[in-house]
Amino acid sequence: MPEGAKVSLDRLDSTGAGTNEVDLTRVAPVKGEMNMKSSIAMTTDANGVKMPMTMDMDLNLQISGGK
Q1: Beta strands in the chain (DSSP E)
Q2: CA count, 13 A, side-chain hemisphere, 14
Q3: From the CA atom positions of the chain, what is the Rg in Å?
Q4: pLDDT digits (tens, 9 = 90+) for 9-64
Q5: Kind and range of the H or E element at 66?
Q6: What is the distance between the alpha carbons of residues 60 and 50, in angstroms, rounded to a whole number?
Q7: Contact predicate 36/67, CB 8 Å
Q8: Taking phi first (over 0 means left), then psi (-120 to 50 degrees means alpha), and beta for anything else, what does residue 14 get?
Q9: In whole angstroms, what is the distance from residue 13 CA to residue 10 CA?
């Protein structure tokens, strides 16, 4: 990005849910799942040139480990 460029966050929507199974004798969860949807809109202004950008993301995270 050029020096002095600015980014404005125009919109951020995010929803999600998940579960974790935790064994307190272990560092990380032994089992889990998370689903998340995010939508972001932003505008970059670099030297008077404005560029709108959008990003949509669907995330599914699954954790599994031995007991």
Answers
A1: 6-21, 31-46, 49-64
A2: 11
A3: 19
A4: 999 999 999 999 988 998 888 899 999 999 999 999 998 999 999 999 999 999 88
A5: none
A6: 33
A7: no
A8: beta
A9: 10
